[in-house]
Amino acid sequence: MELKLGTQLILEPTYTERNEKFRCRVVEKIGNIIYIDYPINLQTNKTAFLIDGAQFRGYFNTETKESYCFNTEVLGRKGGNIQTIMLACPPKDEFIKIQRREYVRVETPVDIAIEFEGRNYQFVAEDISAGGTAIHIKTPVGFTEGDEVQLVAVLPFSNGDIRYIETKAIVVRIFERDQMQVASIRFTDTDDIDQQHIVRFCFERQVLIRKKELNEL
User: Fold this and answer.
1) What is the C-alpha separation between 178 and 190, in angstroms, rounded?
2) How do residues 157-170 score in pLDDT, each as one tens digit?
3) How many other CB atoms sit within 10 Å of the CB of residue 150?
4) What are the residues whose beta carbons fall under 8 Å from the beta carbon of 161, sequence distance 6 or more?
5) What gap in Å lies between CA 96 and CA 84, rounded to an integer?
6) Sign of torsion, CA 89 93 94 99?
7) What whole-number distance in Å separates Cα of residue 186 and Cα of residue 183?
8) How far is CA 105 from the centre of its chain?
9) To 5 degrees, how large is the angle CA 85–CA 27–CA 211?
10) CA 111 – CA 155 distance, rounded (Å)
11) Cα(113)–Cα(156) distance, integer angstroms
12) What digits encode the pLDDT tens for the residues 15-49?
């Protein structure tokens, strides 16, 4: 996998409530810096002026149609015949390959609160995606397969932000694994902003897991 000159990038802000996307191309790459042309806002079709220090998630496709994403930050601008914006380029091992499935699921503990028929329960999830979660059930619960519940997921980000995702959900399946009851739950009414928060959280955790694995080698 290589980020080549001329590659089209889609940039999404990582720390904002606004649902924006910007299209640009890689003009030059020197060391750990990518130089891009001035991006176009895909909603307004107008040139965007990115602020130094702004953080984004970049997406691109390779010549073999594989999709990757990475975290980046605006470092500044470079003059010349072509005005360019400088972006931080992470090492190749920090590029995340995007799975073909609709939502990427990451194995990480997440605090989950569930309300069902007036009773409240606290759980720890073993994984989460923008489509659902799997929770460990250690004590008896009142809900069963097929029940609709009200769910809150607590997402702690590495920069200190904490997001509370509130959604209705369906208990898809309850089963036993390794002498532990597990409930598979599907989110049913998460809005676009909450889905973006979950996707960003999963991506961030993937990066952290990848770094930990590399450090253990």
Assistant:
1) 31
2) 988 889 999 999 99
3) 13
4) 15
5) 25
6) positive
7) 10
8) 10
9) 75
10) 8
11) 15
12) 665 668 899 999 999 989 999 999 999 888 899 88
- Output the six-digit token pair for 76: 């500044």
What is the chain written as a DSSP string?
----TT-EEEEEESS-SS---EEEEEEEEETTEEEEPPPEETTT-SB--PPTT-EEEEEEE-TTS-EEEEEEEEEEEE-SSS-EEEEE---GGG-EEPPSSSS--B---EEEEEEETTEEEEEEEEEEETTEEEEEE-S--S--TT-EEEEEEEEE-TTS-EEEEEEEEEEEEEEEETTEEEEEEEE----HHHHHHHHHHHHHHHHHHHHHHHHH-
Would you state the structure tokens that stand for residue 61, as one six-digit string?
């496709």
Contacts of 71 (CB under 8 A, 6+ apart): 14, 55, 56, 57, 58, 90, 94, 203, 204, 207
Torsion angle of the four alpha carbons 38, 43, 44, 48, in this order, in degrees rounded to the nearest 10: -20
What pLDDT does residue 53 have?
92
Query: Phi, psi at residue 211, to the nearest 5°?
Result: -65, -40
Domains and CATH numbers, the chain: 8-97 (2.30.110.10), 110-216 (2.40.10.220)
Measured over the CA atoms of residue 99, residue 10, residue 54 and residue 190, the dihedral's sign is negative
Structure tokens, 30: 């020197």
